[in-house]
Every structure is written in structure tokens, then in C-alpha cells.
Amino acid sequence: MSITDPKRILIIKLRHHGDVLLTTPVVAALRRRFPECEVDMLVYGETADIIRDNPEIAHIFSVDRSWKKQGVKAQIKHETDLFRQLRARRYDWAFNLSDQWRAAAVAKFCARFSATLAYGKRDNAAWRFCHDFVNPDLDVNHHVIERHLAVLPPLLAREECVGAEVLLAIGDEARRGWESKLRQQGWRGEDYVLVHPGSRWLFKCWEDGKNAAVVQLLLNHGCNVVLTAAPDKAERDMLDEILGRLNVPAGVKVWDMGGKLNLRELAAAIDGAQLFFGVDSVPMHMAAALDKPQIALFGPTWVSRWRPYSEQADVVWAGDFGELPHPESINTDDKTRLLGAIPLETVWNKMADKLGLAR
Q1: Max alpha carbon distance in the chain (Å)?
Q2: I need a surface site. Which of 125, 152, 289, 319 has the fewest CB within 10 A?
Q3: Is 89 a domain residue?
Q4: φ, ψ of residue 156 in degrees (nearest 5)
Q5: pLDDT per residue as tens, the chain (359 positions)
Q6: Would 104 be classed as within a structural domain?
Q7: Is the distance from CB of 303 to CB of 324 less than 8 angstroms?
Q8: Residue 3 belongs to a domain
Q9: Is residue 333 located within the same domain as residue 191?
Q10: What are the Cα distances from residue 35, in Å, to 8, 22, 31?
Q11: DSSP code of 280?
């Protein structure tokens, strides 16, 4: 084995679901350049489902964030067991896309060579000691996928990363589960638009009244609608408010699947839709990965970094219609919805164009 001929590689991404999904182009670039190489990922346990069916990933290792609630002794045992499993894989390279010290330790002691990015809060000798290469980080004018791919030099040149795509694989079990749950609500194979209005952070959400108005317009134009949400009370309340405002005409249907799907079943649901409508959240990135036509609403986040990575996506940014707080000033616990300046007419016109409907 040489430094440029790896047999086994580890990618570390200890963040949220969307972050993990948007790391898959790194896997794709490595597998394209080294087709015989095994590429593993280390992620948080709750995010593993989003890459579970990805055929390009050999093994998924996970950190359970509940370990620290089990006491120091139990946590040390879990961490030690994981470390031993990773060491046993004898990685040639580790690419660390997390800024935690746990990730740095794995990169240092579980691989022959390692690379990371120059995260601002880790600009110190200890961080550089843990990695053989600390590549320049990219600013917010670059998409997060470009940022992730920037970890790969010197093993891969930048031009070798061009065209690496997000992969969201959907297994047969997930497709069967999704279709079975929808059939239980009376679905018989009809086309539908999927609407996912919620986010784990309510400041990213549009008003219930406007969401309901968009759904009503879809129904009035003969479109069936699937409503989805995470198994979260705030998102459940949002769907209930939207449903309570609807007048469903004869001949069309609304299926309420809020909180009833696991992540892989949600992917299958999005894949089967005519159009996805939602906000800046992981389902939006899932729709982009599936190259699904979509309308995505954005508020005070870095649009250039987090926009859906797809030519099929239209983004409506609240900043084009009114003032927004700076992205770095946001309190993520604030439940104030900050997309209110987005006009209903603008969203509907884009949606109608995507679906070929009269405005």
C-alpha cells in the first residue's frame, strides 16, 4: 500500500441528517477514483438511516449521543469499544469533516494518514497535530458539498472531484413500507404533490395560513396532496392547523402522513411525488438528491451554502422580500417564524409552472 493507493478509508461526519447526506459526494469521488477501496463512515447513530442503503459505503459506525447519559463508566466503555472497532479496520486514510475532538482523535489514531479542514475554532497546534493535512476551509459563498470535497486533497486533485453527486439510495423495504402505509389511508396509485412544511427549527418555517392556502390551491387544481412531518409535537400541531383550514373538493385527496414515516420511507415518499414543497430542512436535501422537482423556501440561513443541490429546485428566499436577521445572529430556539415576507403568489406561480397548471 502507498499513500496514493488506499484500500480502506474512513469519513467522519458527526452532525445532523442533512450534513451526513451531503457528505456522500466525498464517498462518490473516492469510489470513482479507487473502485476497489472500501469506504466507511462514522456518524451519529440517529443519522445513520439516511445512508443505510447507500451501496458505496462498506460499513457505518456510529456514536450514540445517549452514551453520556449512562454515566462516565458506561460512556468510556462505549467509546473504547468503538475505538477498537475502528482501529481493527486499519484505515489508510481518515477524512475528518467534523470539528469535535473525538473525531480528531479517531483521525489521528485509527488511520495511517488523515486530512481535515481548517475550522476557525480549531486553529491551534493540537488540531494540526491530529491531522497530517489541514486543508483551507471554504467560505459561505461555496455550497457545503464543495466544502466537503475540499477535504480530499492531496489524495484527490480538485478536478477529480468534479461531478461527484449526492446519493440517497432507497431500499425495497422502505418502498414497501411507504406504499403500505399510504394504501392504509386509501391510496390506489394516484399521483400526488408532497408538502413538508416543518423543520426542527421553527424560525425556518412559513405561516400555517399560507401553507394551507398553497395546499388548497393544489386541491382546487385537481392535485392530490401528501402532508408529511417529523414525529414532533410542534410539527404535528402545524399539520393539524393546516388540515383544519382545508376544504377538500370532490375527486381529490389529502393524505396525512405526519409522524408516520421513518426517514427511509420519507425518501420513498418524496421519490414518488410529482413535486416536493418544503423549507430549508433535510427533506429538501433528500428531494434534491433524488433530483425531484421542488420549491424550497429559505429564510435567514446561508442560501449559497445550503440551497438544494439540484437544477430541478427553485428557491424562494425571504430576503428578497424583506429584512432578515444575519444568519450568525439566529437563536435556534426562537420559535418566531421568519419567512413571513414571502408572498403566497410568488410561491404558487412557481409551483404552477413546475406542475404545468394555470396560475
Answers
A1: 67
A2: 125
A3: yes
A4: -120, 135
A5: 557 899 999 999 999 999 999 999 999 999 999 999 999 999 999 999 999 999 999 999 999 988 888 888 888 898 999 999 999 999 999 999 999 999 999 999 999 999 999 998 898 999 999 999 999 999 999 999 999 999 999 999 999 999 999 999 999 999 999 999 999 999 999 999 999 999 999 999 999 999 999 999 999 999 999 999 999 999 999 999 999 999 999 999 999 999 999 999 999 999 999 999 999 999 999 999 999 999 999 999 999 999 999 999 999 999 999 999 999 999 988 889 999 999 999 999 999 999 999 88
A6: yes
A7: no
A8: no
A9: yes
A10: 11, 20, 5
A11: S
Domain boundary among 108, 129, 161: 161
- What are the strands, taking DSSP E only, across 51-101? 60-63, 91-96
Q: Is residue 166 part of a domain?
A: no
Closest CA to 149 of 293, 33, 55: 33
Strand partners, 275: 193
Do 207 and 145 share a domain, yes or no? no
How many domains is the chain partitioned into structurally?
A: 2
Grid coordinates belonging to 170: 432507497
Q: Please give the Cα distance from 84 to 356 (Å, whole number).
A: 56
CA angle at 44 for the pair 53 and 169, rounded to the nearest 5°: 15
Asked if 282 contacts 50 with a C-beta cutoff of 8 angstroms, the reply is: yes
pTM: 0.95
